[in-house]
Amino acid sequence: MTFRHILLAGVSVMLAAGSAVAKDDEAPSRRFTADRVFDMEYATDPQVSPDGKRIAYVRHSMDRMTDKDTGQIWVIDLATGSNRPLVSGSTGASSPRWSPDGTRLIYATATDGKPEVRLLYLDSGRSFPLAQFLEGPSEAVWSPDGKHVAFSMFVKGEAPSFAKAPTPPEGATWNDGVKVIDKLTFRFDGAGYLEYGATQVFVLPVDGGTPRQVTFGDAEMQSPEWLDNDTLLVSGNTAEDRDLDPVESEIYAVELADLSIKPLTTRDGPDTSPVVSPDGKTIAYRGFDDKTLSYQQADLYLMDADGSNQRPLAADFAGDIGETVWAPDGKSLFVMSEDHGVLSVYKINLNGKVSQVVTGLGGASIGRPYADGSFSVSGGKKPVIAYTAGFTDKPSEIAVIGANGKDAKVLTDLNADVLPYLDMARIEEVKVSSKHDGKEIEAWVALPPDFKADGSFPLILEIHGGPYSMYGPFFASEIQRYAAEGYVTIWSNPRGSTGYGEDFALEIDQAYPGHDYDDLMTVVDEMVARKYADPERLFVTGGSGGGILTAWIVTQTDRFVAAASVKPVINWMTMALAGDIAQVVRRHWIRAEPWSDPEAFLKHSPIRFVDKVVTPTMIVVGEEDYRTPAWEAEQFYTALKMRGVDTVYVRVPGSPHYIASRPSRLIAKTDNIMGWFAKYDPAKKDEAKEKAGDE
């Protein structure tokens, strides 16, 4: 894929991006140029060994030849500080997990395109595949005695058919047979059109052999957790109407001796992610009572090993409960929660007392500044926590801290060979009071290397997706690219964002887009008031939820010179009938039927107000996006064309919803957006006129 083929034939844009490759008589650019994306590395999934002496993690790098984000398993020795690849030459590896005794490690990878779970012996450094897998295994977990591994894997089913096709003559070329579909969810983003079957749970001896399937049926069963060496906990939704109620799930106990299965939870709402206490007597899990709202935070619960005595823990905790780990003494739990733009780890004792242990997790990607991260806890009397540390000026690193919240230390510096030699954007925090109702809105602004608060710089408002997600003060290649080309770039968490409490997120319940628009405009007003931006050089872009907000903004105001709406929802009616999360949109977000109450869907759809748009608007979407499918973007593009509004439609070949899944896609998206903005930038037009006059 070449970048010139991304835009439609005949469309010419003036890219502002410079090349990172210097001519023989030039010094290398100190700006964050487009191909610097390929130089970036970041760390994810830190797993501290049971004895707390080593941390295995995934070190990500961008492969220039295959155009992929690839992973290697590396290990850090906490005593010496050494940081080495654990399996020499391994690429595409992920999910390292220590054996209970710390002598072995399993991880996921692929050989010649075939998925594998491999077992590595630490004493010899030798590894071998545990079995031959026809499908991709995932979620592998050790049994307490270290003799077995449980994992989930897709099991093919029989597709429906109403006719038996005749056999073609030998050598004949016939059309492929018809495909009969009778499921509500028949395609999904990142997977395409779904095969018939379901994910099930398997058990495998670590000495190798044939995986034993232990769950069955049409319902998805996954997220295995060992209750003891003879019993597995799994999560799934076996309800008859599960396609219509996709958030529902229960926790089940599977007895491996006879494969009997027993539900441990039964309420209306999701119960997921069981984790077993060190003594095996208590199960912690996450869930909530489903009130059929567009956003509902997960709470923390405990139950006895047989499913009895179910009770909430720290019911007044304000945040959403994320990744949960028992302390080795079984007297408390560590939980991760979104916390005002960052991720924090909290300690919750069995009386419900909460204390913060570490904050600043996040930034575990290179694209946009989302808060993302993970952590793990060692065993022993003085456990340590390994976690992904986020930064404004570099991608995520591996860090460690005592479980008492003391002695934090960052252990890696994966981009020390690149970033110190570049002029990076300076990041500032911004807080404003929304002009709608005075609610505090948190934001961050990236300032170009040559920035001066003189009111002359162009500004890009970058809007996050979700909408129930959260940006934070983290490194992002897209933000650095914009800043390197001279754009003051602002990103924020308007109402509807997570990390600020359930009430703040629910401000957009059945009102999206709504007053989140006012929050965003307040942020822009602040940048103009500070003279950070020229009010005549304002631009707006965003992806997914940010894409619909971008499209909504141009139906409400003409203050932006140009816009780029990336993978947007344009029509909630078509989204509720043909997107891969259609039932969530209909049942939880809109809470109406499109055929009987179309106004409920259209009143917040940009397509309804397309006659108000005058702003030149680029539409960008992945050709294999089934989350906000291409036909959403095409409705807006076609309507704008019909109305004579300047527009262009950019299709990213092979891309699902997550366009930045390949480095070149990230570069193409970012640089084409800047090219579109440069085309309409009044300062660029003035420069072009002056140049033409001189000539």
UniProtKB/TrEMBL annotation:
Which residue intervals define the domain Peptidase S9 prolyl oligopeptidase catalytic in the entry? 475-680
Q: Does the keyword Protease apply?
A: yes
Provide the GO MF annotations for this entry.
serine-type endopeptidase activity
Matching Pfam families: PD40, Peptidase_S9
Q: Which residues cross the membrane?
A: none
* Range of residues in the leader sequence: 1-22
Which Gene Ontology BP terms does the record give? proteolysis
Q: Which UniProt keywords apply?
A: Hydrolase, Protease, Serine protease, Signal
PANTHER family to which the protein is assigned, alphabetical: DIPEPTIDYL PEPTIDASE FAMILY MEMBER 6, SERINE PEPTIDASE S9 FAMILY MEMBER
* Protein name (record): S9A/B/C family peptidase
Per the UniProt record, the source organism is Hyphomonas oceanitis SCH89
